[in-house]
Amino acid sequence: MLDDITKQVAESDGEYALDRKDVAKVLYAVDCDDRDALIELMEPLHAADIADLLEQINAFDRMRLVKLYGQEFDGEILSELDDAIREELIEILHPQVLAEAVRELETDDVVDLVEDLDEPQQEAILDALEDSDRAAVEQSLTFPEFSAGRLMQREVVMAPDHWNVGEAIDFLRAQEHLPEQFYHVVLVDPRLRPVGNVTLGRLMSSRREVLLTSIAEETFQTIPVMQEEGEVAYAFNQYHLISAPVVDENDRLVGVITIDDAMAVLDEENEEDILRLAGVDGESRLSDRVIDTTKRRFPWLGVNLITSVLASLVIAQFEEAISQLVALAVLMPIVASMGGNAGTQSLTVAVRALATKDLTGANLWRVVRREVLVGLVNGIAFAVIMGVVGVIWFGSPALGGVIAAAMVINLVVAGLAGIAIPVVLEKAGVDPALASGAFVTTVTDVVGFFAFLGLAVLVLL
Amino acid sequence: MLDDITKQVAESDGEYALDRKDVAKVLYAVDCDDRDALIELMEPLHAADIADLLEQINAFDRMRLVKLYGQEFDGEILSELDDAIREELIEILHPQVLAEAVRELETDDVVDLVEDLDEPQQEAILDALEDSDRAAVEQSLTFPEFSAGRLMQREVVMAPDHWNVGEAIDFLRAQEHLPEQFYHVVLVDPRLRPVGNVTLGRLMSSRREVLLTSIAEETFQTIPVMQEEGEVAYAFNQYHLISAPVVDENDRLVGVITIDDAMAVLDEENEEDILRLAGVDGESRLSDRVIDTTKRRFPWLGVNLITSVLASLVIAQFEEAISQLVALAVLMPIVASMGGNAGTQSLTVAVRALATKDLTGANLWRVVRREVLVGLVNGIAFAVIMGVVGVIWFGSPALGGVIAAAMVINLVVAGLAGIAIPVVLEKAGVDPALASGAFVTTVTDVVGFFAFLGLAVLVLL
């Protein structure tokens, strides 16, 4: 059946993704050693799609494809690849092809490319650059990883804040080299401090004598060069920025960040949160090898093992009760499981609200109260359902009552733990997406088993 | 302790978020009925921050604030608000203030604002618009929700594809009204079909006699007007687009989508995936009322109840075995829990890979094999650990062997189910982020309990 699905998944991928046939054609050309056919097939593809293709085929095919493709391999493909595949290809590529490929790139893309490489690979790429580019890349690398300094481009189009539209247009028209992509002219004061942004569109549609300051955008935000890239992405998303000037500690203009880079960061951060919430290393990629994937998943499973052994220790305290009434063993996982799920709901909402800055000192107490109330109401609802099931299944109203009471307790605790644990972790400087799950599940498991079995001992035995 | 943390969370929010003191000052001004102070405090805030502030205070304070703020309330704040709060405010706002606020907005923001409102509220807003804007909004609303047609703006700056740079610049300079934000001039053929994009920066830096077609961007992508907005966001992210022309079924230009809107969609889609994976309705917001939140969380907990009752039914088959050896009841949740966690890891990776189109027909089999192998290797590792724990804890090598074997079985099954279930759901047209968790957990619970208890019966009793 899966084979059938393979086809259907490929078909449902929509128009942007490569379909299975395209990939098959490319691999056929590689099999035939037919360089012309390969180049013809690859020609219409965007570098991002070629990178996806390389990620989706196996290592042997990848090596053969890259060798056959030869000189055509360009830098953009390299910068679109996942880290693991990129490192693999840098090893395989002919040094001359690699040098050629890297020289085509903008310096901020080269930074992005070399920052994760090992020393010798980094050297190989830096050596391929012209001296001025190499200096620019090396200077970027002096900023901490994940900082605005790493993200920015250094080429900025600026104008003195006393100019008018005519002066700015004449200045731009007279430039030999303007950056490939720019959207604003940054207005600077005499000490090079940015004071405003004028969009090119606004510039184009204004009369020559109009002062630039009078058509500057209303929303203006500068980014400190040491700011963490997640904060940068947040600012772009919150204030709908298109580009923003980056300033040093003296508020002087040192570069500019554009929305496309901020969008990529936002997407990566979200991806990391999703994976971490599920106990998967945020850096995991589908193209990782089995052994790397195994290692990346092991720690979380290890934490979970400790968690579940703790829960088992709780159960072990009630061995005698269970041996007297085996129905307890049958029903106990239900209470723990419901608590775990309710806790995961609360903690996910809390983790996201912290990430998007929607959960702050101003509403923390209201949110805690809300989560506890939601736990209480859903707890009562499921207590009724489960109480009835317990009575029907085991014919014991007392047993039904015990499971109902344990359900209410565990869902309230789940709501409370689900919000409190991420907040405490954030305060302690630990990423709440990474660690909340383990703590919350421990709480709901322990409380679930203890409440249910403890009440059973009190009421039933 | 939480009170202490309240403060610290506020402090660690970084410079973009409102801190608790700002909110307190605003509320104090409201308490004092001091309109001037309120306006002075709100003046420096971006509309997005004011919206956040309104979301974070309680309904009573919100009402008083909005009444006091009066005429100052503008349309941008309205379009930044969460749906629930927005509806609440539309009820409260003076009709004249509302009309004023809405008239300030661009038509695509009005569309975004009215599409989720009830009929009477929608009418109230449409009535406030000028006739031409109302017609534009109503036409946008004819496109399906979540389509490119809803997302696009209609004002496009275009030029015939035979023009040169000089002609384009003269044309732009002569326009009375250009859109607030635009980044490209779209080149169109005589039948109004877009054939290329020229960035304003490129236009500015080229000589007058250069043909526009010769400086068009290399990457050019048109968006069909009926395309789903998630696909649009994917295209922007994949191909690093800044703006893209939208075309109708005859490939004629009907509008343009800009990256800031695509970024917002990408962020929303990721947010939905995160929440859905945790069994929370993707539309949930922190500002929802307790009763709405309870209702939104209930269905998933209901599904989980069914899942765990199924698991209990499996356990019930082994009541006799458990009553003979209560250690089985103590250890059985460990196997199920490890399987659940491993399954969640696999399914999250699979769901994300489907969303980002990294999992396709070309690599499905390799990914399935990888997940099964990862399950096997981690299964063996934890089998050894748990086998030893079992022996030490209960002094029974046979019991250790049983739990070890069950662990391997369940982790392999978890890897397989974690990848196969999302793929099958995607094929069936069900959102895998929404439904995979329930199915995978059912499988790992049932297999976990059955393998452990079944092997115990065979080996130990």
TrEMBL record, chains A, B:
Q: What does this protein do?
A: Acts as a magnesium transporter.
Question: What is the protein's given name?
Answer: Magnesium transporter MgtE
Compartments where located: Cell membrane; Membrane
The keyword 4Fe-4S belongs to this UniProt entry's keyword annotation: no
* Family note: Belongs to the SLC41A transporter family.
The root-end lineage is: Bacteria, Pseudomonadati, Pseudomonadota, Alphaproteobacteria, Rhodobacterales
Q: How does the protein associate with the membrane?
A: Multi-pass membrane protein
Any one GO MF term held by the record is: metal ion binding
The alphabetical list of record keywords is: CBS domain, Cell membrane, Magnesium, Membrane, Metal-binding, Transmembrane, Transmembrane helix, Transport
What is the first-listed, main subcellular location in coarse terms?
membrane
Listed under subunit, the entry gives:
Homodimer.
- CBS domain: which residues? 216-272
Q: List, alphabetically, the CDD domains matched.
A: CBS_pair_Mg_transporter
User: From what superkingdom does this record's organism come?
Assistant: Bacteria
Q: What's a GO cellular component annotated to this UniProt protein?
A: plasma membrane
rRNA-binding as a keyword? no
Read off the PROSITE patterns from this record.
CBS
Among Gene3D superfamilies, the record links this protein to: CBS-domain (3.10.580.10), MgtE N-terminal domain-like (1.25.60.10), SLC41 divalent cation transporters, integral membrane domain (1.10.357.20)
Checking SMART domains in the record gives:
CBS, MgtE_N
Q: Which residues cross the membrane?
A: 298-318, 324-351, 372-395, 401-425, 437-460
